[in-house]
Amino acid sequence: MRNEYKYCVVVITLLFVMTACSINPAESTPSIGQNYYIDSGSGDDNNLGTSKTTPWKTLDKVSGMTFQPGDTILFKRGSSYEGSVTIQGDGTASHPITIAAYGSGNAPSFSNPRNSINNGNAMRIRGDYHIVENLYFHHCAPAVGGAVSFEQIWAVGALHVGLGNDHVIIRNNEFANNPKAIQSYSQYSLITKNYIHDINDSQAAGWLSEPYWGPIGIQLGIGNQEISFNTIENMFASGGEWGGDGGAIEIDDGRNHKDNIHIHHNTTYHNMGFLEISYWHDIAMMSSSNISIDHNVSRDYQDFVFWWAPTTNSVIQNNTIIRTDNQYTGPFDGVFFIDAPPAEIAISKNIVVTDNDLTEAIFIEGFDGGVKDVVHTFNCYWNVIDENVNLGLPFGVGEIVADPLFVDFEGGDYHLQPDSPASGWGAFND
User: Fold this and answer.
1) CB burial of residue 237 (10 Å; 0-12, 13-18, 19+)
2) What is the pLDDT of residue 75?
3) DSSP string, 387-401
4) Alpha carbons 342 and 224: distance in angstroms, whole number
5) 211 preceded by cis ω (within 30°)?
6) Pairwise CA distance, residues 75 & 381, whole Å
7) Among 169, 172, 107, 163, which Cα is nearest to 138's?
8) Distance between CA 106 and CA 40 in Å, rounded?
9) Are the beta carbons of 160 and 124 closer than 8 angstroms?
10) What are phi and psi of 400, to 5 degrees?
């Protein structure tokens, strides 16, 4: 009897183990997130939208949804949408909400030429942990012209991420012919590998708001953000209050902090400046801190930086700055415009190339003398015409005036030759 009992226990135990091992974990754990498909051509809002064969049709259908963690919103390649879509709902760190493309062909395109509809935003992100990728935004509306409020300017953007909607990734998108490509109030965000180019020449002569605001590639309204590996071209407008305006990147809105911003490995060409950081002309005067600008290539009009705000613990290093294109000029024509103190900025290992068309010094003192606070060391300066460099400050430790020996300056290859006197400096040292 005792042996029979042991035998039964063993058999039952083996059966339990075999049954447990036969269960597929993937089948026992429910998947997180649903795919939703949108096709402006053959879709129907009465469809379920959960398969490629039953897609939705309109942006209104998408805007009426609140998406859940892990959901993916897929617009068909080759489709196009006019108006504005709001993506609502929170993802999580492990299960973000993704807005992307499906199928083959051109990226799905979004345009909103009417400022009266969501301030000209083609897409608005209203939730945490979103990814926006592989989309095309074009010909969105500017703000109204004239002396408009700051809020009206900050509400514009082909892609707009509102305040309190954090952990948003914007990557691998194209923005063409917009007065502003991206407006981000998203903390802990990443804006990377986007191609932003050209003004909206079909509205307001390309101005964001004439005569005071030129077009902008990326505008940040709060800190804790990263801008990297983007290409930004031709964001400028000639005329207006300043003679010319616009820029690749701006940090504005003094209602929010301007701390912990990393801008690196971007390439910018023929914008009205690389970076502007607001202070005086703002709703409130907010200082900045811990801003790093490194490994960027800039061949822009006007100054590389307009740093109006006081700052601490900030750096400008390993950038290649070409200031030989001066077809369009603004009120300041140098390289480093530093205004309000303290200007605790370490400027090092940059390569700065100018010519005799530069009307001001490389270092320009703003209205409050902050430029005297910067520490500039181990930078290379070169005037391609006659080697005459107007620095505007005494030379710092390790700084040189020398031809950096680019691989192909005229062809735009700013890598350095092996025998460069600026080896290890500039944008391509890593």
Assistant:
1) buried
2) 99
3) -----SS---TT-EE
4) 21
5) yes
6) 48
7) 107
8) 14
9) yes
10) -135, 155
Q: Is 295 helix (H, G, I), strand (E, B) or coil?
A: coil
313: which 2 tokens?
């613990």
CA–CA distance from 109 to each of 76, 91, 121, 374 (Å)?
A: 10, 24, 13, 44
Q: CA-based diameter of the chain, in Å? A: 108
Burial group, residue 202, by CB count within 10 angstroms (0-12, 13-18, 19+): exposed
Q: What is the CA radius of gyration of the chain?
A: 26
**Where do we find the tokens 């932003």?**
196
Q: pTM (2 decimals)?
A: 0.92
Domains of the chain: 37-416 (2.160.20.10)
Burial of 73 per CB tally in 10 Å (0-12, 13-18, 19+) = buried
- Cα–Cα distance between 198 and 200 in angstroms, integer? 7
Joined tokens for residue 137 = 């935004």
Q: How far apart are CA 213 and CA 275, in angstroms?
A: 14
CA distance 188 to 190: 7
Lookup: tokens for 97:
């909400």
For the stretch 257-279, pLDDT in tens is: 999 999 999 999 999 999 999 99
Neighbouring-strand partners of residue 102: 76
Query: Could you tell me where the beta strands, DSSP code E, fall in 201-308?
Result: 216-220, 225-228, 231-233, 237-238, 244-245, 247-251, 258-264, 267-272, 275-277, 288-294, 297-301, 305-307
* pLDDT tens track for 366-421: 889 899 999 999 999 999 999 899 999 999 999 999 999 999 999 999 999 999 99
Please write the tens of the pLDDT for every residue from 88-124. Answer: 999 999 999 999 999 999 999 999 999 999 999 999 9
Can you tell me the distance from the alpha carbon of 308 to that of 313, in angstroms, rounded to the nearest whole number? 15
Three-state secondary-structure class, residue 88? strand
Is residue 136 within 8 Å of residue 201, measured between CB atoms?
no
